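Title: Prediction job returns without error message
Component: structure pipeline
Severity: low
Priority: P3
Assignee: unassigned

Description:
Job completed but the reporter wants confirmation the result is attached to the right record. Sequence as submitted:
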Amino acid sequence: MEQMDGLDVVGCERCDDLCDSRSRIVNGVGPADADLLFVGEAPGANEDEQGEPFVGRSGDVLDDGLREAGLDRGDVRITNCVRCRPPDNRDPRKGELTNCRDYLETEIDRVNPEVVVTLGKVPAEHLLERDVAVTGEAGEVFDITVAGQPRRVLVSVHPAATLYDPSQKETFEAALATAAEFTDAQSGQSRLGEF
């Protein structure tokens, strides 16, 4: 039986391939009322092993980028479009993204962030429902509707892109700096009105 317990998905068996390849469901981490919600595509091997999104090398890059932007990992929420590791770390398939979409929408609705930050092409295209040129659109904010509510989505390159192409580091850090403009983690006061 599949269900959500708060923000966590428990017992989902919607995708045969993903159920076969996962060792666990990897739910989001971070405050349930975070101003910033970061969304990746799917857990990789490290995430599947540790049960937390964005650990390992990509997680280190994300953590460093957050610090550079004046943010702390503990102050943001981090999740994925798909909560189970695809076989061989392949991109999640359209049907898998669709099967997990209501979990993501429920998490976005319950967290109610000031902005959703997409980390990479897959989550950007999944939420914006169109082709996205991530490097060209990184740092841009788009108004969309998710689960009947208006939401702001900020596009970012994936942290791993900076490992394979160091020229992406500046693009990544600039997107996180834009995300930081939506929140003041130290005082808890949103600066959304200034955007």
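Comment from assignee: result matches the submitted record. The chain has a mean pLDDT of 92.
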